[in-house]
Amino acid sequence: MKIAFIGLGHMGGPMAANLAAKGFAVTGFDIVPANLEKAAGQGVAAAQSAEDAVTGAEAVVTMVPAGQHVLDLYRHILKSAPPNTLFIDCSTIDVASAREAHGLAQQARLQSLDAPVSGGTAGAAAATLTFMVGGEKRAFERGQPILAAMGKRIVHCGEAGAGQAAKICNNMILGISMIAVSEAFVLAEKLGLDAKALYDVASAASGQCWSLTTYCPVPGVGPKSPADNDYKPGFAAALMLKDLALAQQAASETGAATPLGAHAEQLYRRFNEEGGATQDFSAIIRHLAAARRD
Ligand code: NAD
What we know:
This protein is α/β, with parallel strands linked by helices. It has helices at about 10-20, 35-40, 50-55, 65-75, 95-105, 120-125, 135-150, 160-190, 195-200, 210-215, 235-255, 260-275, 285-290, and strands at about 1-5, 25-30, 45, 60, 85-90, 110-115, 115-120, 130-135, 150-160. It has 2 domains: about 1-160, Rossmann fold (3-Layer(aba) Sandwich); about 165-290, N-(1-d-carboxylethyl)-l-norvaline Dehydrogenase, domain 2, CATH 1.10.1040.
């Protein structure tokens, strides 16, 4: 099966390489020549342009930074695609743009899926990503073997945009819960309570959650996490801020009240502005520990 892969960055590069390794004929394109060259060394045929990559493809995967990139690309390349080509956008973008992208594909009589991922660059390299997928069932069924070559869990969440909706709702929980766990450890320290003692109690009590027991923001406590590696990402605080901002955009478009989501976005924005952007998102604990109560 011929696949075009557009956007060969930190995520797209290894994802395209996995498709090629599993026998798909992958033609790739990226506006950054170095990224294209790197992919070419991993079994991906290099195209001269996005249009070139798409010509003759049965499926097109895009992995670019934001909604505007996806829409610009779609406006550019949909007309170069053979009828019935399946477009799969794996980028994390706002729900409104995802729905607009589906609309553009539909007008051009093409099939489409929004299929954002979780699992980060490690998951992209190991082909263990989770895909959250929105779009029609028959498009989902067609896309499944392609996604299975890049990931280990593929969930059909509903119609157009449902994959992006699932992604930002999940990551809003994650951002809020990481702040909650971090605040508890900051308060415990002020109270003279040992971090390990808090972990031992809360991890087996009603405070238990993923941010505590799988990804503890305190080093030396719980299973190995970025905190044990000087907060090297993992999942960078800049990406957490991006996802929290997408959640707030969706909340304001739909009128949903998400006061904790809004506050989490503000806290992560401040942390990013104060130099935290390239640290793991769990390093928010350092920012909270340094803050003074008003
Ligand atoms: P990246 O910046 O490394 O890669 C994006 C690539 O898209 C770049 O190589 C860029 O040159 C290319 N690009 C942009 N516009 C293009 C165009 N018009 N034509 C061709 N190529 C184009 O970013 P990334 O970390 O790979 O993330 C990609 C997407 O995946 C983002 O939406 C991000 O939010 C999401 N995501 C990232 C992670 C992560 O850990 N990095 C985890 C989950 C989801």
